[in-house]
Amino acid sequence: TYWLVRSTPLFSTTEAVREVGHEVDYFMRKFTVKTFDERGKLKSEIYGIEARHFSDTDILEIDQARIRSINADGHVTTANGNRAYVNGDGSEVQLTGDAVVVREASQDPGGKETPRMEFRGEFLHAFLNDERVKSHKPVILIRGTDRFAGDTFAYDNLDQVADLKGRVRAVLMPSSAAGAKAAKTAPAA
User: What whole-number distance in Å separates Cα of residue 165 and Cα of residue 126?
Assistant: First the structure.
């Protein structure tokens, strides 16, 4: 073993590896960041009062965040919150404090109308590429004129499924066509 230790080549002593801590490596003030797809079309836009980037987690922490995302079909989704935490590629956003995510009304190629949807809560976690929103805290969901509330929440836009749990409350409004028909057939007082 003595010969082995003596005969083994010594590698240069490396400098002590600096531990990466949770420190800000850059910041921005009153900024807008835009991302584009391969064809040059706007994919997303992020605005904030101040942002801090942490290299150890590749998270961008944004104060007074406003985010706009446009999917491949051109449908617009906006997200706002007192604070946002965005991952490195912008595919996930966690909003805290007066969080609001809105998907504007749209029409599919067949002409079917999809009503405006709005999600409100103190915490919302949006997965922009998968078009999903979830929360482990109470959320209000407004779809057209209908209103739902639950203690926890998950919504998948691709499957068109909302999963509310806990104390769930809903107010469903009749469609304007059904309401007009009901008004016509109601007996006079």
Answer: 18
Cα separation, 94 vs 123, whole angstroms: 7
The SS3 assignment for 3 reads helix
> CA-CA distance, 163 to 132, in Å (whole number)?
11
Q: Tokens in use for 117?
A: 């949807």
- The tokens for 148 are 């739902």
Amino acid (one-letter) located at 32: T
Rg (CA), the chain: 25
pLDDT per position as a tens digit, 151-188:
999 999 888 899 999 999 999 998 765 444 444 444 44
Asked whether the predicted pLDDT for residue 21 surpasses 70, the reply is yes
The whole-model pTM stands at: 0.76
Residue 68: count of CB within 10 angstroms of its CB: 17
